[in-house]
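In response to a reviewer's request, we include the raw inputs and outputs for one of the modeled complexes. The two entities were modeled together in a single run.
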Amino acid sequence: MKAITVIGARLLQTAFVLLAVITILFFMFRLMPGSPLAAYIDPNFTPEQQAALMARFGLDQPLWRQYLIYLGNLMQGDLGESFFYRQPVAERVLALLPNTLILTFTSLIVAYAFGVLAGAYLAWKRGSVVEQIGVPLVLTTRAMPEFWLGMLLLAVFSFGMGWFPAGGTRPPGAEYDTLWALYTSADFWWHMTLPVLTLAIYSQGLPLLLMRSNMMDVMREDFVTMARIKGLSTFSVVIRHAARNALLPVMTSFAIAVGYQIQGNVVVETVFSWPGLGRELVRAVSTADYPLAQGAFLMIAVVVILMNLVADLLYAALDPRVTRE
Amino acid sequence: MSDAVTSKVQPPGRFGRLRRTLGSIRLPLHDPLAVIGLGIYLFFILMAVFAPYIATHDPNEILFTSEFALAADLTPGTEGYILGTTTLGRDIFSQIVWGARSALLIGLTAAFMVALIGSIVGIVAGYFGGWVDTVLMRLADVAFGIPFLPFVIVLAAFLEPSIWNVVIAMALVLWRDTGRVIRSQTLTLRNRVYVEAARVSGSSDLKIILRHIAPNVLPLSFLYGSIAIGWAILTEASISFLGFGDPDSISWGYMLQDAFASQALSKGSYYWFVPPGFLIILIVSAGFFISRGYEQILFPKLDR
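The model returned the following structure tokens for the whole complex.
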């Protein structure tokens, strides 16, 4: 298969999955208890508002028509009206997306930087005491409930020592002219330290274990033996020759990790009152703000699906065997 | 044909199949970590079974001190409360002990469902191939596109609050990983000589699957099952923590939510929120340790 065919097939598959997930989402919110109108219409809306929404989403029409209208509206970026904020869901969700993405990417970059180095180190120290303690320890961090780790860090470093704020993205009352000013402010990063640390401690296990096992495979390859025989230093063999080659599959896993992280963010964002998509989803579901819940869910799903695509494409690009099949 | 007749006609075959199937479920006793994991499981199973005898109080009972005041936020050891009490005056130690029940119940049933569905899907897709395979694998693609935790949250909010929501959600979504792996394993088995031989000698598909494919796939199902136990327990904890759990059952996640909502963090009540998290780590990592033991049975090459 040619590369272009592979990419085309993957894109098609992604479009199919996206459509399927949107469909599942639509029917899931229709099957919930109570009136199907509840998905879009808050009983507190005025009769005029209710009538306008009825027309906008075709709520007086049969289910299949509603579904088509829903798809049509979605294409135009219309996700309905939030009950709580009285503003378009799309606007609200897009405003929260950067907070979640910044948190996710920062923590994963920290996790991967640490995981890759520590994984290479553990592979190098194979069979030693360091490895025998290190590997179970890493497995243990994978077994931690993320929110519990967050609670622990909060109790110790925020409430106990007072080093870090307990939640949010900025000190009370602080205003920034632009979003850019907020994201580049020291306050923002100071508020983000504990959530990033929580997520990073949890996610470093994946790159670490992956790097370690890849390194162990690569170290057995002929070209590494050759480098040894040439008399290169251990450092040079491990870093220059082995680590470089072991790194590629780890990098592909980054995209998958983003997808996983963004679903797991739900709990950590709640613990740290981080105004992101995950916390919004939890709040919207508990306050029965269905359009917002649906929108937040959809946004998270889109990120997951896109990251799966990126991982697939990266994998195909890095491993020629996939395309040459 | 009744069972009695079948066993009369073919006793050796029956026993042989059973033994072969059971024989493939070996406990990974060669690996020290896996043995530790099995030990931890034994500990929790005993704790769950004997919970009524181990717990010192009713976990839901609101307790009072000897001066008839609410026994709220007592530190460990006060008035005989081993781990202290919650803000509402409940005994933390007893909640911990009873929590083992829901953890094991959810973990084991969810893992069973995931392994069962994943194995059936994987075997059917891999063995029959063609459009069956295409349909099932596209379904797996869709399952991979569903954000799991948000899905559980929405499902738990729409259904009646119950510990089974997590099990249902896991059964609906998480079979995907097991399914894909079992499918590729089945693909390699399908073309083995002994399967060909069985087919040529007129064995039915069902018989080939039960006799030749399933026993060889079972250890892999166990591997994924033992990982799924941990996932289920972690998921239940997250869901309870977010407030979508069953309010009538005591679980470690529920305890953590209670502690978080009762300001245990700012009060520094470590004795309240550290133990449940610690036990979750213990039981989930035990599952990981066991699964590593299985990995070494399955892929001995990794042992080099």
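As requested, we also summarize the result in words. The CA atoms of residues 157 and 163 of chain A lie 6 Å apart. Chain A has a mean pLDDT of 79.
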